[in-house]
Amino acid sequence: MVYSNQFDVAGIMVILTSLICAWLRPKFMKNFSVYLKLLIMLAIAYNTLDFATILFIKLKNPGTWFVTYFLLVLYFIVVFMFPYRATLYFYEICGEKCNPLILRIPLYAMLVLATVGNMFFDFFFKLDKETMEYSQGIGTYGVLLFYLYCAIIVGDCALKHKRFLGIMRLRMLVVLFFVTIFNVVYQVLFPEASITGLVLALSVALLIVVFCFIDVTIDDLTGLNNRIGFIRACDELMHKQDMTGYSMIKIQIYHMQELNERTGMDNGDKVLLLLADNVKKAVEQNKHKAVCGRIGGDTFAVLTDEELSINTMAESNIPDFIQNPLTGLDYAVSFYAGAYRLEEGDNDIDSMLDHAGYALKWVSGNFKTNVAFYDNDIRKEDEHRKAVEQKVRNAIAEREFKVYLQPVCNTMTRERVSAEALVRWIDSKNQMINPSDFIPILEKNGFVTELDLYVLEDVCRMLRDWNEVGIDIVPVSVNFSRVDVEHPGIVEDIIAIVDKYELDHNLIKIELTESAFSENIGNIINTLKRLREAGFVIMMDDFGSGYSNLNMFKDMPIDVVKIDMYFLRNIENSERGMIVLESVVQMAKRLGLEIVVEGVETQEQYDYIRKLRCEMIQGYYFAKPMPSEIFPDQVTAG
Ligand code: C2E
Ligand code: MG
Ligand code: MG
Fold first, then answer.
1. Which tens digits make up the pLDDT trace of 172-191?
2. Distance from chain centroid for Cα 219
């Protein structure tokens, strides 16, 4: 302190940094703990007092001696309170309680010296009543020692929590430590030109910037750990203690986007805050160590050692609050939770979250229960998914996908009029994997587009080869998934492949399953229209398997409907089934669509379809899907 005008720079810096942060990240600032707010206020107080006392000392007016003296005492109180609060704040960040004796005893001693001690011994300063001359006492070195003492306590805590703090904050602490040491040396060498105010301001500003913008571990909205904070906290916990009996739980609000759209973002936030509160409470109730966080927009995660608390959290607390009139929502909010019980040797937090997430997906949308544990059934499916994802990367390069063809026949003449390409995966162990075992997985990871274009290319190559050797060719339909249709540039890709083999576009039919027509149909209609304009035949696959909106049916750019095989199951014994099927056929006919009936297996079914005058049939009754090489030689059965 004394005879410097650091306030100009330092005080303004703290105030400005805090204001800028409050302006840019209002929610973040609101969530700052009381400790940090106190710290900022102390930094501001320090610089204000520094400025005021210098002003009064310079005035050299004996009439204001008491005021100056009082300001000086206050100044020294703040000088000690600042590192004390900073240390406590640091402990709070690390989730630890600082032993009060370690810090408080030296703090109280210093505060006594600053107030009473100074009166009798001029311990920190001497202020002459007549001349208003100011000089520093021996105690000012005590200030430096106290700062160093706090720095050592912070350093000790930082080392214990280095996993949670992360490399960035540790580096920041090292920088701050060296700045403090530099400050001490500077103070000893140039006692008349202290830079402590500046150093304090810089430290607080750096702290705020790092926490608010650079290494953010707190969630803006709820004040819980964010994903990074959660993972670091779990990592630390796992290195501190035995994790036997611990579970990783993932909790997700169901259809959060819809909730936001229907009730407004503010209400969405309200629900998130209530859920966050409950998660926090459930974790606090649990006397053992637990970690929680908001790891995604609508997703929370908890690592806890009591399975019971999963049930309490999932089955009682949260539904309570959701039905709570406090939310005031005219909308049923629901959530789902997936839990994974840690096993020996587990140390990868991402994979624990992955397992919990898999259980969560499994239960999402279920009406009976909202919690699922990653048990053996789920594990098997998950492992299957992972194995498929692993294997599939090589499978295209190794040409492990084979195209099978199933004929589609004219109902009356029994002639083959076209064929459907159905993919089979023959893996490196020569095992055949059916599409239902891998297509849904590839749809999720987006790989299906590559596969479908591969199948299309294979079909085109085959048709061109047959054409060249004089085999009669029929149009072939290729299955496309919904993911493909939303893929940018898909129309151009399809055209490019077919043109590469110089085939007529009407030799290729595009099959899209009915469920693809349920959401976001504007985009799909547009893509299908462009394909149709390019001369491809468009087919709606599996009609009747989902819950199509019959009304949108009239606007769909389709040429053919494939009636799902489900309609034919037990049709012989179901009069009502017949009525439904006949109506569907009638409707399609009146809309001018061609009809293929899938899954025809028996003579009775065939006779019945014939009576209905559906043009085309595909099913085991005529032929099962067969390797494309033998397709030209096979004569249709029946
Ligand atoms: P889908 O397009 O509806 O194909 C018809 C499915 O019914 C085929 O099963 C076929 O083998 C089977 N099937 C045909 N006739 C009969 C019958 O008389 N009785 C019975 N029980 N089943 C019959 P597959 O080959 O296992 O294919 C299943 C689904 O996988 C396909 O349903 C299609 O949605 C999808 N898929 C197949 N290949 C591809 C592909 O290359 N790309 C995409 N995206 N999906 C494909
Ligand atoms: Mg199909
Ligand atoms: Mg089908």
1. 888 888 888 888 788 778 87
2. 13
Q: Which atom number of ligand 1 is nearest to the Cα of residue 562?
A: 3
Distance of CA 598 from the midpoint of ligand 3 (Å): 6
Q: Which residues contact 425 (CB under 8 A, 6 or more apart)?
A: 395, 400, 401, 402, 432, 433, 435, 438
- Residue 123 has φ and ψ, to the nearest 5°, of -65, -50
* Shared-domain flag, residues 356 and 421: no
Residue 291 CA, ligand 2 centroid: distance in Å: 48
Looking at the DSSP bridge assignments, the partners of residue 248 are: 303, 340
Non-local CB neighbours of 98 within 8 Å, separated by 6+ positions: 87, 88, 91, 153, 157
- The answer on 98 and 204 residing in a single domain is yes
Query: What are the pLDDT digits (tens) for 426-464?
Result: 988 898 989 998 998 898 888 899 999 999 999 999 999
322 and 206 share a domain?
Answer: no
Q: Does 220 fall in a domain?
A: no
Number of structural domains found in the chain: 3
Q: What is the mean pLDDT of residues 90-102?
A: 83
Here the CATH number for the domain that contains residue 279 is 3.30.70.270
Protein residues within 5 Å, CB atom, of ion ligand 2:
479, 511, 541
Pocket of ligand 1 (CB under 6 A): 406, 422-423, 434-436, 439, 448, 452, 455, 479-481, 511, 513, 541-542, 565, 598-601, 618-620, 625
Measured CA to CA, the distance from residue 172 to residue 15 in angstroms comes to 21
Highest-confidence segment of 135-139, 147-151, 396-400, 622-626: 622-626
CA of 562 to the centre of ligand 3 (A): 6
**What is the Cα–Cα distance from 7 to 524, expressed in whole angstroms?**
64
| Domain end (from 150, 181, 214) | 214
pLDDT band for position 572 (50/70/90)? confident
